[in-house]
Specification:
By secondary structure, the protein is of the alpha+beta class. The protein contains 18 helices and 13 strands. Helix 2 crosses helix 16, helix 8 packs parallel to helix 16 and helix 11 packs across helix 14. The longest helix is centred in the C-terminal third of the chain and has 41 residues. It is elongated, with a radius of gyration of 30 Å.
Length: 504
């Protein structure tokens, strides 16, 4: 009680964290679902067997996860939240009389001890495997998309530098295939060339993004793949903002398929991944692609209707094209720059053709058609378009990929980065994806519990144990049993701010 002189009556009470921690709390559910002791096996090579005891690595990782689960952007603020939040202390195992790790200690350990290692990638992979064990990941249909993350770099602080202009691995692969097919007489040699690029002076590893509808600024690209079953993120890969989307797509798909043993039947992406490399690589693995056709740019040559390149029929056995008038376009040469086979009609055939003006025009001698080396794969995969499975996959990609990015940017520290360098930005993206996967894992576990409880109530009701069904209705999660996707669409924040949460 308060007295007139402002004094307070002192009272001693004995309490424990377990007593103060609410029973219905997200962190309790997370602790029951996930055993974080696997981190000890991952970090064991990084710690010495002798010396002074260090901070528990599990405590450190769980503390970092708390920041991404609850959208706490800085380690300094995270330290302050752990000091005053009982639920956080309970989750980390820090009692009232124990000190909270300093934010500088966490930062130095993350940078010096864990920097240059695959710790966070291994943790992410282990979380994916736990989701697979829970039945949330099948790997049958994989959905891929990318989003930009603003780099911690001012747009004005830039420089233009010269870098070597070397061909990509895909270009080298095409040259090897052309040499094996006899289209080239000798291996292609590339002259030493350079090109100019714009680099940030504050974060040189970022890239200047220059895309329609995107910010003209230094960014990173977060390439994510999600499973179509429950939206679990199965792969995260970060590149500079000026890298094409389809460049890492094939290798990352093959990496996660081999890593997790997926029996993938189909992959889905937007029109930015409309590339022959993707079609050929997936066709060789027997995987269907659901990718919309990329729109042609406005500067493409226009042909009269009925005489487009698509109107020419390709004879695979004879390796020739047949024009709409029945004339043959034989193989002429191989275009090394475009990696295309060139087919050309005889001049006399085009001169005597009544459709010469509509097909060839007055400035050319004969009609020419080019064909990509992997055109067969492109045409084979194009058969998957405009099917019911194609439209269903596109809808799921929009729900899961874009939905994940939206939640991560709004609630899980993905809108921008305060770190510099691909390694640290990758760490941020991996932990953000881990937060999303852990939330869905906990929600799925709770849904299974309530489904089982609902089945029990239903059986007891039919046995006559319960008379009034309104008094013992099904739990909300059980009502969504025919549409499990509703359990994960939206409401990510509600899973964290459940009953007993400090922010509710």
């Amino acid at each position: 009680m308060l007295t007139r002189d402002g004094g307070k009556q002192l009272k001693m009470t004995f309490l424990t964290l377990e007593e103060l921690m609410p029973e219905k709390h997200f962190l309790r559910d997370l602790e029951r679902c996930v055993d974080f002791s696997f981190i000890y096996d991952i970090v064991e090579p990084l710690y010495a067997k002798v010396g002074r005891p260090s901070i528990d690595p599990v405590l450190l990782v769980k503390m970092l996860l708390l920041g991404y689960l609850y959208g706490i952007p800085s380690e300094r603020k995270l330290e302050q939240e752990v000091r005053v939040n009982i639920a956080f202390r309970w989750f980390l195992g820090i009692d009232f009389d124990e000190p909270v790790p300093d934010h500088s200690t966490i930062s130095q350990l993350r940078r010096r001890k864990f920097g240059g290692t695959t710790l966070f990638q291994d943790i992410f992979d282990e979380v994916v495997r736990k989701c697979m064990t829970a039945g949330l990941v099948t790997g049958k249909l994989l959905l891929t998309d990318s989003t930009h993350i603003l780099a911690n770099a001012a747009k004005e602080k830039r420089e233009i530098i010269e870098v070597p202009d070397t061909p990509s691995e895909y270009v080298k692969k095409l040259d090897r295939e052309a040499l094996e097919a006899g289209l080239l007489d000798e291996p292609v040699t590339y002259p030493e060339k350079t090109r100019t690029v714009t680099k940030s002076t504050t974060d040189p590893e970022s890239g200047l993004m220059n895309r329609p509808g995107k910010p003209n600024a230094f960014c990173y690209l977060n390439h994510q793949t999600s499973d179509a079953e429950s939206g679990i993120i199965t792969d995260v890969f970060v590149t500079p903002g000026n890298v094409n989307d389809c460049t890492p797509h094939t290798s990352r798909l093959e990496t996660q398929i081999d890593k997790f043993g997926f029996e993938t039947e189909a992959v889905c992406a937007d029109a930015g991944y409309d590339n022959s490399e993707v079609y050929d690589a997936m066709l060789k693995r027997g995987i269907r692609t659901y990718i919309p056709k990329k729109r042609k740019p406005n500067n493409t040559p226009s042909y009269t209707e009925g005489f487009e390149p698509e109107a020419f029929t390709y004879d695979l056995e004879e390796d020739v094209y047949i024009c709409p008038q029945g004339k043959i376009l034989a193989y002429s040469c191989y275009n090394k720059n475009g990696h295309k086979k060139r087919y050309q009609a005889a001049r006399k055939d085009c001169n005597n053709c009544p459709c010469r003006q509509q097909c060839v025009g007055s400035s050319k001698n004969s009609r020419m058609v080019e064909r990509l080396l992997h055109e067969e794969a492109r045409q084979e995969q194009a058969k998957n378009r405009n099917t019911p499975e194609y439209f269903a996959a596109l809808r799921l990609r929009k729900i899961w990929c874009e939905g994940n990015f939206s939640h991560q940017k709004a609630e899980h520290n993905l809108r921008r980065t305060y770190k510099r360098g691909i390694e640290r930005v990758t760490e941020q993206c991996l932990l953000s994806a881990c937060a999303m996967n852990l939330i869905r894992l906990v929600k799925a576990a709770n849904a299974v519990f309530f489904r089982c409880l609902g089945v029990i109530f239903q059986v007891l009701f039919h046995l006559g144990v319960f008379v009034n069904s309104t008094d013992y209705g099904h739990p909300p999660a059980f009502q969504n049993r025919r549409c499990p996707r509703r359990l994960f669409s939206g409401g990510m924040k509600n899973a964290l701010y459940s009953s007993g949460d400090y922010r509710q």
